[in-house]
Structure formats: C-alpha cells, structure tokens
Amino acid sequence: MTFQKGDFILINYTGKVKETNEVFDTTYEEVSKKERLHKEGETYEPKLVVIGEGWVLKSLDDALLDMESEKEAIVEISADKGFGQRDPEKIKRVPLRQLLAKEINPIIGARIEYQGKMAVVRSIGAGRVLLDFNPPLAGRTLIYEVVTQKKLDSNEEKILALVHRRVPVVEQEKFKITIQNNDLTIDMPEDTFYVEGIQIAKRGIAMDIQKYLPDLAQTQFIETFKAEPKPTVTYTPTQTPEPEPAPESPTEPTPEAAPAEETKA
Question: Judging by DSSP bridges, how do beta strands 47-50 and 111-114 pair with one another?
Fold first, then answer.
C-alpha cells in the first residue's frame, strides 16, 4: 500500500552525508548516542509527517508517496534539491575584536549568531575569524534511510499526534479526546500546566486541527486543577491514668483538758 498527499504517517529515519557517511539527523536514540548527536531533553521517536505539507525536505516528502508501510527505503537527495550549493559570497572574515565585544568566544566548528544570522566558524588567525553563513549541509548529497512505521486513519489518532507534535514532553496517552457534534474537547493533563510556552502550543494545536481536520467546528481545552487532599489526622486512644489519691492531712493531737481548779470555801 502506497500513500497519498494529506496522509498522516509516522516515520523513523537516519540522515547521512553521502560523501563522508556522517550522520547529521536521526529519530533513533541509540544512533544519536553512537554518533554523538544525542541532546538531553530531545525526544527520539517516530516523527509525524503530513505528506505534502513540507514538514520534511521536498525531495523526501515526494519520495514518501511511493513508499510502503514498514519497509525501509533509501532516498538520495542531491545538493540542488537539498540545501543548495555552497555560495562563496556567504563566507566572510570579521575582526575577532567585534565578536569578543559581543561576548562571543569563537571556536572552530562552532555555530554562532552574528548580525542576526547563523554561521559556522571555519578558521581563526591574525585577529580575524572566517565565518561561513552557508547552511551546514549546503553542497552535500544526502542519504535518508526511512521506514514508514504507521499510517494514522482515525481522527482521534490524528488529533493526539498533532497534540504530541506541539507538546512532545508529555505522553500523548495522558490527553483525553472527546468529539461531540463536531466539537472537540481536549482534557489537558496536569503535566502540561507548567510546560513552558503551553499557551502558544495550544494555539498551534487549534490551528493545526482547523487546517487538517476542518470538519471539527470548535476546539476547547479543559484544565482541571484539583485541590490537594487534606491530611488525615489519626487519633490514638490513650488510657487515662487513675488519679493519685490526695495525701492525707496530718491529724494534730487533741490537747488534754487542764484539771479544774478547786474552789476554796
């Protein structure tokens, strides 16, 4: 079974430079670690692609139409159809002091931002730095090893995939989807409440759903904040000790009666 434009599919891939066999991108965590590309916080998993929407390089996007599910395919992309040829005009020398004044300490091979554009530091010498503003993969022939893992058919699958694309740090199984009368409700799990940029992500999700699932008239996000449970106080019965008897007051001796005096006649 081949695919059509507009299909939602999940793909795994590894991208290499043909000339050097260097890996520059992958969805496999073990490959990223082996090739020293691993980034903390990065999510390594099959990538969502809506065919024809330009979410990957156009040549790769076009090649997806002829692929079969769960079968690996090799896609070769020339420089002209990839990141273009290298442009000598985009290689410039700048004074080192200008970078240092902006608190930029250039290191050969590092990517830096200079005058609002990204560049690779190619060399440093004689007080000047050679900056290459070409895309890092410009002039390279690319090889993609691709496996289409799954095609998403139901609206629920598509919605969850679109949500996960915008909020990858939270497992998509934690979101609850309800569709009623062409209205969509998305219950947001507590894990999302403090995710940085979550409001922008929700707006992006709503726009994606409006574009790719136009039959849904409305998208509503529900956030439920639960009160913290009150601690339960357990009373342990204790035996009340018997009151100690009050000490007896010492009894003072009764004074003896004095003998009556005799009355003389």
Answer: unpaired
Strand extents, DSSP E, the chain: 8-17, 23-26, 47-50, 72-77, 91-95, 111-114, 117-125, 128-132, 142-152, 176-180, 183-188, 218-223
Q: Return the structure tokens found at 4.
A: 């059509």
Residue spans of alpha helices (H) in 113-169: 155-166
Instruction: Give the pLDDT band of residue 66 (cuts 50, 70, 90).
Output: very high
Residues of the chain with pLDDT > 90: what percent?
A: 80
pLDDT surpasses 90 at 29: yes
- Say what the pLDDT of residue 247 is: 61
According to DSSP, residue 53 is labeled S
The confidence band for 78, taking pLDDT boundaries of 50, 70 and 90, is very high
100-113 pLDDT, tens per residue?
A: 999 999 999 999 99
Which residue type occupies 206? A
- C-alpha of 261 from chain center: 116
Exposure b/e, 53-75, CB count within 10 A at least 16 = b: eeebbebbbebbeebeeeeebeb
Q: Strands 117-125, 23-26: parallel, antiparallel or unpaired by DSSP?
A: unpaired
> What does the pLDDT read at residue 50?
98
Domains of the chain and CATH, by start: 1-84+137-153 (3.10.50.40), 88-132 (2.40.10.330), 154-226 (3.30.70.2210)
Identify the DSSP state of 259.
Answer: P
